[in-house]
Amino acid sequence: MIIGKSQKMQNVRYDIRGPISDEADRLEREGISIIRLNTGNPAAFGFDAPESILDAIGQLAGAAAPYSSSKGLTHVREAIAAYSAKMDIPNVSPDDVYTGNGVSELIQISLQAFLNPGDEVLIPTPDYPLWTAATILAGGTAVHYMCDESADWYPDIDDLKSKITPRTRGIVVISPNNPTGSVYPKELLNEIAMLAREHQLVLFSDEIYDRLIMDDKEHYSISSLAPDLLTIVYNGLSKSHQICGYRAGWMVLAGDKSGAGGYIEGLNVLSSLRLCSNVTGQSVICAALDDLASVRANVSPGGRLYEQREYAYTALSSIPGISAVKPKAALYIFPKIDIEMYNIENDEKFVLDFLREKHVLLTHGGSYNWKKPDHFRVAYLPKMDELVEVIARLSDFLQNYQQV
């Protein structure tokens, strides 16, 4: 008997943990040490959780054994609503808050409750690929709008506008952005909000990196500019507080919810089906939101993440055939490689060749639904000495690399 995968899986990919990661697993089983820069996993590189988080776990672990309500613990949702108000996210009460096993789960729930077969969602390219995969799994169609590398990776408003059709139902905004590290200015977000208003679209705003911003850039939630629209805003602690494994995420329903009763009913049913999110993860949210000082120190001059960003940008840009836009936030840089210089036709093969020869795992631009084979992503999380080694290996690898 042959058992195939479901037809709805035909175009679903998540290459960040895909075939190249499987090859890294194989190499490790052979005893080869691999530097894994394919995921934003700070704790794996010695970024420790703040003491406030560890103290909260010690105090609250015993109370985390029972289920919580499907949306989450009441006092946690109150804290998230208060944080939302500080971020100028409008019209959020504790009842508008849903905790999740990370943001990934909540993205899938929110799209499952929202989409009918053939509905279109506008998603940036490059994107965080879960958005595309979750849209397809929910029966929708992912339509990618371009972000412009020559303009700090900001969305191309004309391209976005040209992609709107009668089937379009929502726009995804990822700012601060993964994989580019771009932080969108208020003026640009206002233009996106105006398009959503004109075409009666729902906004989905992925803001997981809002606390990891550098260079005095300011983060604006698009919801703050569109109180008359329904905006789903996503956030969590995995990156800012270095606790990916705790799976502490949330989403809030912001803005005008007057016509969204049916959608909210669907969200409540899907939330109930998974019973609740991890209660231990929920329990540390209040402490984390009260302690943002350690996060700010990390992304300020002299802070570890800031200095590693500085080095990664400078060192990568010095390699012949490599250029990059300096990221303003998050954990990644998305360099461009001269595909003519290195005869690159397949970016997946490029990162696979690098893995096999130099034992460093990167992700190729195609993982982020970028169509040209001319980009790759590096997580600049290793401590400085290891980061220096990684980029030295890349420079050495490219000295003789020609893809055939």
Order of helices and strands: HEHHEHEHEEHEHEEEHHHHHEEEHEEEH
Helix content: 25-40%
**Percent in strands:** 15-25%
Q: What is the number of E strands?
A: 15
Order of strands in the sheet with most strands: 2-9-8-7-6-3-4-5
The secondary-structure class comes to alpha/beta
Q: Output mean pLDDT.
A: 90
- In the predicted model, the low-confidence regions spanning at least 5 consecutive residues are none
Q: Using the CA coordinates, give the radius of gyration.
A: 21 Å
Q: What is the molecular shape?
A: globular
Task: Report how far the terminal alpha carbons are from each other.
Answer: 39 Å
Please tally the helical runs, counting DSSP H or I stretches of 4 or more residues.
14
Characterize the biggest β-sheet: 8 strands, mixed
Protein architecture, described:
- By secondary structure, the chain is an alpha/beta fold.
- The chain contains 14 helices and 15 strands.
- Strand 6, helix 7 and strand 7 form a beta-alpha-beta unit.
- It is globular.
